Queue: 2 jobs
Job 1
Amino acid sequence: MLLACLLPMPFHLKDGGTVEYRAVLYTVSRVRRLNGLEAEKPFQEGVIVKLLGIEVYNHVE
């Protein structure tokens, strides 16, 4: 039962290449989003970590 709470399942989002690894207790997102044609940067990259649904780390540029 504890193993099921800690092993993540990968989910691929259709926003430019973001991958979320979700488990019951946490979520880790490797972000790669497309911003659009008029933005300064064409995409955003970084990592977001959530524990029990609360964001504890966000390094998205």
Job 2
Amino acid sequence: MELHSKIYVAGHRGMVGSAIVRELKKQGYYNIITRTHSELDLCNQQAVNDFFANEKPEYVFVAAAKVGGIVANQSALADFMYDNMILEMNVIHAAWQNNVKKLQFLGSSCIYPRLAPQPMPESCLLTSSLEPTNEAYALAKISGLKYCEYLNRQYGTDFISVMPTNLYGPNDNYHPEHSHVLPALIRRFHEAKVQGASSVTCWGDGSPLREFLYVDDLANLCVFLMNNYSGNETVNAGTGKEISIKQLTELVARIVGFNGEIKWDSSRPNGTPRKLLDVSKASQLGWHYSTELEEGIKLTYNDFLNNPHRVER
């Protein structure tokens, strides 16, 4: 990409999209196109086609998605599959039809099998069954990844995909039911501290192992890959480090300042037992993350405190 290249970031108001915009501006890119949902409904194929025909972006980051934690995924299976599949197909297809030079599709590590080898290499995709609690979302993301691959093979496009691990950071969604584990914990422990609660009950038994990547580090990788990688196989985005949910809750509680008891409700689902990405491909390309988990959680808690409108989303 050149600094003057016309770049469209789909989903620029979300956590990932806003981080990509920040990173692009930080690196000197200035011809960035964005549209809010009210300005452009990505689920409306004609509207998307018209946008691409009129704007003719040269590079596209597909960071728009309908996202959520276990509760949200389980309660709206059809919505998660339909909305994500429709919006990504509309954007990718329109990008191909309008001769976009390069497109980057962002997925999720949930595309990999529930019992995949650990750490999970890109090659383990579609080798066994998915985690049932987010299967609908995973299937939609796999479809987007594969559509990029098939366009490359059939039409010679340069469409790549990136599969991030669990993300967190500024502009996250802190909704008590629809958010992912880390922002949900930040909100719960903060509210418990403010209310003087003696305990907080968390789902499962705390045993699952998870990997977390600060969203600004992901954005740095996304721009790096747009300039340095082409290929049909996706690229994992993570730290290569994992932590148990129990250790994570204790860390968040300490950072937030909650000193009460942490209880566990083992009748609630744990989700996938372990999710650690093999990040050797990104490393071999010359990229490495820079934000350690404790530092990142402190930055995210500060974002939570200073962005009250995010709390109610």
